[in-house]
Amino acid sequence: MSFLFQPFKQKEVTLPNRVVCSPMCMYSAGDDGKVTDWHIIHYGTRAAGKVGLLMLEATAVEPRGRISMKDLGLWSDEHMEGFKRIVAFAQAQGSKTAIQLAHAGRKAFVDEPILAPSASPFRPTDPIPVEMGPTEIAQVIEAFAQAARRAKQIGFDIIEIHAAHGYLLNQFLSPLVNKRTDEYGGDLIGRARLLGEVIHAVKAEWGTARPLYVRISAVDHHPDGFQLSDSITLARMLKEWGVDLVDVSSGGATPHPPAHVYPGYQVKYAETIKREAGIATGAVGLITTAEQAEEIIANDRADLVFLARVLLRNPYWTIHAAKQLGVDYLGPRQYARGF
To answer: Hey, what's the torsion of the CAs at 199, 201, 202, 205, to 10 degrees?
Structure first.
């Protein structure tokens, strides 16, 4: 029996396999961040392709937290109906569903002032963000909490909090960005304070019956930035705060990409955090073949594999992978003749 196609149970949610459709922004939202037909078809196709977990793209918890004006949002009850359609169809196909709640911070490109832990832009030519004070911090925490309330009402199985890739919560974590001298800055405990407060606020609305994930950037790919040892410490904190899985990516705090990118280049981060912090992890980053994904799960290097661009190229990757690994056809009955 394939390890990749073993179920994965956490709390009241059981994924049918270990394949996750990683959150990928479509930049296709309609008026004011609403779901469009594009999202219905795009996510529905990956669910029909039998991913174990369909995770929707970074969804802004408030308008000024969008990466772009075409990002999805969940800052009002008016956004909920479109998400309900995606969730209902995906779950009917046997896929579990998740939503990644996010705030872009200083990497937002919107028509209003943007926020950051410190008043420094992402690039020298970008707008200078507002350094967040107590009011802005409280507003962001409440925005995450209310988005979590809506996600629960919509029927999502899992929430992921986006604390990676140089967006707001990652900005607070990274010493390259966070230059504060108050209780939200300084050492890792201070820099992680906002993330901890967001997690507690989200859990108060989300409850404890269903899993809560957090995506982190394990390293900043900079000698003065966040290091793997910091991520291990952070993962231990996340476990203590009741987080069920750490989705392990890297980079994004600076405009500079990692020096070397190769198949599975981030898996070592997920493996180390899983081993050292004793928490479930997801691996992501140029995982493209069935054999590669199987090896990661079989050797207990991570608990889930998050696939991104390969699922853009082939939404039925999971069905093909099952065949390659000797698993009986698991796709929709309507497509069985094609396999």
So the answer is: 150
